[in-house]
Amino acid sequence: MTSEKTSGERTGRSLASSFERYLQDKGKGRGGDGGNYRRNAARELERFAEWAAGDRGRDDWTGIVPDDVDREPTFEDLDERVFREYARHLAGDRRLKQNTVQTYYRYISAWCGWCVNEGYLEAHYAQRASAMAPLPEDDGRKPGDQQAWTSEQRHTLTRHVDERARDAVEAYTTLPEDTDPLDKQRARYAALKAARDRALVFVLAYTAVRVGELLRDPNDPRRRGVRWEDLSLEDGSMDVYRKKQQWDAASLPDPVISPLRSYRKLMEPPTERWPVFPTFDQRTLAELVQEELAERGERPEAIAERREEYTRDLLLALDEDIQPPSITTDGARSILQRLSQEAEVDIDHPKHDYLAPHGGRRGMGEVLVRAFGYTVAARYLDNSEEMVRERYSHIEAGELGDVATEALNEIDSQAELSTDE
């Protein structure tokens, strides 16, 4: 009796009353309040609730509640016909791309499945064939169509950042002893920035680590960016917080070790907790330095005088051990846009006119699959072999095509010999 009453109370609730609990269960971070999934799912759930209430959609759309009833939509109003209509709304009214329609519908479908488990709904209506029928077919975009750095692109970019860093470091380390202190600071700052960019490019190019595992994600408090304490250059490993929500060791192959070691020597981080790839954004660092020195008891006049002794606040932060944040994943994209343009990398891709961070990972995946097969590639990429086979299926298709071509050539050759005889 109690169970039936509880179930009835839940099915009579408004749709929005379940959102926060669902997002906490599916979110990331302390209290489930972080992560890109939570943010994106929350946005689409709110749109779904507005559509269900008649506040979104066609001009003649009045929502899922009967016209003669004045209340918010509840779970009692949901059935497969509602989700079928919402699929039509996504595919038609909102004029979304095919893959975007699929993505947005998955957010609603995942919530629907959770509602079944929690007793809000009797069945997973969103997954029924009739509900999903209006969804567009896959747009045909294959994994091989997504950007993957080619060997030539990787070589062009890494050679550019390597030469740039070598020149900047040499310019700094060969300064005469009587060089003006501020000029020496400018040279050090230029060397640090070039060395950081080189290390970042080499890590993205050769480790196949996801950029979200390497740098700071403002939407997930656990992803604060790798720190020096996470690296073991002697062992060739790096601890990262994986996509599967746990810490794991990633490999640092030989090409990455030297740029990281040179960069660390130049930076001399005050503590091991410093980020490997700190932001160089002047506005961020200026605010950080002033706030930290004020908290340490420095007066505004003294802080201003202290800052005037440095050409850049990053150098003051290093001397005073004021730990800056890591660059963000968006910051990495901006850096790669700048470096791709400087290096004049030849890029022909419909979506990106620069070498995007994820392309480095996919490029390494291509190399590993071709050289060692799917099993080894899956281990290095921290993915299941099944997923790697799916994402790099174009490689196997190409190899099978070569086999077919060879077989046809063999058959044709035998046919020609038979005819000659």
Automatic annotation (TrEMBL):
Keywords: DNA integration, DNA recombination, DNA-binding. GO terms for molecular function: DNA binding. Residues 10-116 form the Core-binding (CB) domain. The keyword DNA-binding applies. The keyword DNA-binding applies. GO terms for biological process: DNA integration; DNA recombination. InterPro entries: CB, DNA_brk_join_enz, Integrase-like_cat_sf, Integrase_recombinase_N, SAM-like_dom, Tyrosine_recombinase_XerCD. This is Core-binding (CB) domain-containing protein. The lineage of its organism: Archaea, Methanobacteriati, Methanobacteriota, Stenosarchaea group, Halobacteria.
